[in-house]
């Protein structure tokens, strides 16, 4: 059970958030006046902070910066919460040390999922930090500690980089007896352990040990590569100098650590920040960013671009009669069909509910967009086979063109939404361009 602190000036938001946290088995506390955050954390044990960005006394970004600069509190994970959108704000929060980002209004399952991921990540980080603290004492570690490490360790001679000693993890991974490993050149054994991420293969100009050999200080390098089974792997190589009493480097401790789990978790967190959980499509924040990118591209190449808003006709009836599970399957299939209609350079996004959007780059003619809209309507109008149900649904589409319907993201989305409203009012199952109505 974790202790989670909710910092927000909105009493309703606090009440909802605390209830959702309690539902997954954790205890909560809250602060309405954000200026008391650091004193609160100094006097109470807290495992995770949910911190609102916009508050009247001290804003969340300022508090995040102060927290991450604190000598004893800087390891507490923080999830930022805000009603604002935009990739810039999200990226800023991650750069300042936040572990995740949640938008208001809060979606219960998303919040609970992100809390679980943050707590699991923090537990893993604490475990890794403990190992790093142990490794900092590597100059004096004993044979017992040497062989109890979970990472692969090898001690190398400074002059010819031959193996002096290796721990049991290294020996087991290489698959050779210690008698064949000791005295062998580093690359002949190490290459077998973390090949193909190890770059030198015997060529010292590319050796990961060169920084430590030249500077006499600890260095680390991280490599990623495709494993033989096709999955992505990440390996961290840490090189630590072992010095003589006169401070001359005598030997080098090389540590090979598999950090795949941590890196893939980071990739997943970044993906969740900008993608819809159900369909995997870009979410609202990423959609807005793609519009701005498309406008900039259109200006450079003297082309048009289009923004499309989709709304499934009478989707609520599907949920009400067949249940949300079938509704979710329908949304996933709609996402797949829309994606199959556009080019890889275009973007299909989900705004929420049954609302989808599209950004079409480098458009030459309006006729080109009309043909694509007709293709989408035809694709969505074909029968959906979802478990034991066969459904036929239709969609309405609103379209705004750049630059004639707006020269910025706000106008284009506003006008595409207006065109969608007209399309629905015109009998549904059709596409309408914005025309100044």
Overview of the structural elements:
With 437 residues, the chain is α/β, with parallel strands linked by helices. The protein folds into three domains: 3-133, 3-Layer(aba) Sandwich (Rossmann fold); 136-263, PAS domain (Beta-Lactamase, 2-Layer Sandwich), CATH 3.30.450.20; 275-433, Alpha-Beta Plaits. The protein contains 16 helices and 17 strands. The strands form four sheets. A five-stranded parallel beta sheet has the order 2-1-3-4-5, sandwiched between helices. The chain has a five-stranded antiparallel beta sheet with strand order 7-6-10-9-8, sandwiched between helices. Strands 12-13-11-16-17 form a five-stranded mixed beta sheet, sandwiched between helices. A hairpin with a 2-residue loop joins strand 12 and strand 13. Helix 13 packs antiparallel against helix 14 and helix 14 packs antiparallel against helix 15. It is globular. The model is unreliable at 201-205 (pLDDT under 50).
Which fold name fills CATH's third level, the topology of the largest domain?
Alpha-Beta Plaits
Q: In CATH, what is the homologous superfamily of the largest domain?
A: Reverse transcriptase/Diguanylate cyclase domain
Biggest sheet layout? 5 strands, parallel
From the spread of the alpha carbons, the general shape counts as: globular
**Count of structural domains:** 3
Q: Which percent bin holds the helix content?
A: 40-55%
